[in-house]
Task: inverse folding
């Protein structure tokens, strides 16, 4: 079969012929139809990822969706999304049985494949980890990407009283407004004043996909008892933080990584997200790319996709 193979750490994967995977206890076979390309795939390929990995060569692809070929728990032909961590960018993937999540019939393959890692981060960041309550003010930092797009929509669907988006590009800010944000602000020097003006008496919840100075600024508008959910570090892997406000305002900083969440929680969250997406209540900007175009898609992901989710299709 054809697969996207990482031959050495730090290299761009190549499309090559590899042996078909075989079923084994605890592993299901899935005929892949669509697989979202994510920043985590680049991180895994760097060889400096924080979770255990096989040694190259191996097939890349942290997530995929398709149809069950063989499974101990689901009938053949069932449409599923799954999180194998590696092996998803192939015509057939061997995946953990516990990662199989049925996909509603009303949800197209490309959307189902693109909503996984990034969509779940935005959805769970607001609903589960962020514990959104109706009427709260939510700030989404890094709102232009798929994580941010879903977070804005999750906040709106969850009854947020006000949703404030922060994005680096004008196009990203327009996209955030289209997703339901009340106001969209630019990152940069004027952000502290703009955020304070947009949030009024303060924010209850910050969803942060950037870290760095933008996240530090957002922490500054959290009211007493506020929460920040940290999802990524597209702006910076580190930031300086003043300790006093964390104690004085009793703030919570909460990390979330879809890759290490409880599988049962992921199944519930994906089922919820897929259902609202199938009804048209959550949407993402997704582009289908043939599996043969994976190296070019990899380069685009490295350079930045401008908020568009690239989805490899077989």
Result:
């Amino acid at each position: 079969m054809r697969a996207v193979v990482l031959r050495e750490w730090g290299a761009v994967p190549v499309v090559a012929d590899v042996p078909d995977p075989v079923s084994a206890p605890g592993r299901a076979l899935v005929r892949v139809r669509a697989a979202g390309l994510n920043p985590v795939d680049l991180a895994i390929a760097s060889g400096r990822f924080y979770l255990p990995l096989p040694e190259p060569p191996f097939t890349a692809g942290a997530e995929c969706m398709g149809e069950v070929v063989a499974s101990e728990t689901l009938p053949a032909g069932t449409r599923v999304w799954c999180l194998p961590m590696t092996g998803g960018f192939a015509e057939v993937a061997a995946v953990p049985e516990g990662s199989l999540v049925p996909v509603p019939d009303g949800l197209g393959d490309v959307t189902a494949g693109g909503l996984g890692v990034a969509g779940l981060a935005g959805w769970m960041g607001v609903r589960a980890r962020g514990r959104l309550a109706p009427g709260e003010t939510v700030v989404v930092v890094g709102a232009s990407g798929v994580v941010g797009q879903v977070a804005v929509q999750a906040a709106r669907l969850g009854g947020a009283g006000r949703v404030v988006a922060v994005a680096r590009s004008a196009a990203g800010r327009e996209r955030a407004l289209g997703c339901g944000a009340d106001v969209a602000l630019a990152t940069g020097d004027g952000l502290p004043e703009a955020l304070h003006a947009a949030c009024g008496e303060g924010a209850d919840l910050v969803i942060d996909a950037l870290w760095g100075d933008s996240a530090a600024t957002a922490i500054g508008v959290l009211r007493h008892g506020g929460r920040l959910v940290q999802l990524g570090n597209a702006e910076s892997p580190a930031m300086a933080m003043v300790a006093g406000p964390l104690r004085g305002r009793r703030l919570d900083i909460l990390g979330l990584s879809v890759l290490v969440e409880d599988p049962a929680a992921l199944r519930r969250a994906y089922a919820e997200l897929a259902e609202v997406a199938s009804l048209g209540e959550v949407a993402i900007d997704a582009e289908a790319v043939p599996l043969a175009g994976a190296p070019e898609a990899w380069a685009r992901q490295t350079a930045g996709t401008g908020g568009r989710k690239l989805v490899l299709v077989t």
About this structure: The chain has two domains: 2-115+284-313, 120-259. The domain at 120-259 is CATH 3.90.180.10 (Quinone Oxidoreductase; Chain A, domain 1). The first strand starts at residue 2 and ends at 6. The mean pLDDT is 95.
